[in-house]
């Protein structure tokens, strides 16, 4: 959400802030990658997920969610599709 | 991609164009909903998908993808996660 707000203003940002936004996304990606790996190690997440691809996909989906819900003036929580992401990455035999 | 570019400039747009961007998303959502329904009717897509939720999720994910890849200056095609979306909605018994 915060990075969504930042990213939304990207076009209007000076170069230094564009680099910051990129760093910000990188931080999110690194966090996602570490935690998906942890989840796999603990047997909570599907072991066959590609950590890099899935992390980027989650970032995309949540960035897009904050963005679209803002354009549509509706509820981010209800429209983020986070349940669908979870359903896609959790091990089903729980 | 086009609507991503539009949406990215949303903050800077006058009210009339904000409404257009919203309409633009609505057109995408309607198209997605119709085609997911068709895909279900033809037995290509999973029959238990919630059409509204999944359509919004696809829009979110692809908007986010165009947005994040632009901020990261990398390749939209390679990072959109479209394969993951397909894997999530196609009937597996194919």
TrEMBL record, chains A, B:
<dbReference type="InterPro" id="IPR036271">
    <property type="entry name" value="Tet_transcr_reg_TetR-rel_C_sf"/>
</dbReference>
<protein>
    <submittedName>
        <fullName>Transcriptional regulator, TetR family</fullName>
    </submittedName>
</protein>
């Amino acid at each position: 959400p915060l990075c969504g707000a930042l990213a939304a203003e990207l076009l209007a940002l000076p170069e230094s802030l564009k680099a910051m936004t990129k760093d910000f996304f990188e931080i999110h990606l690194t966090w996602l990658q570490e935690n998906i790996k942890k989840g796999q190690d603990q047997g909570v997440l599907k072991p066959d997920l590609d950590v890099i691809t899935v992390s980027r996909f989650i970032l995309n989906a949540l960035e897009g969610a904050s963005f679209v819900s803002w354009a549509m003036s509706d509820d981010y929580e209800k429209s983020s599709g986070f349940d669908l992401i979870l359903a896609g990455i959790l091990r089903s035999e729980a």
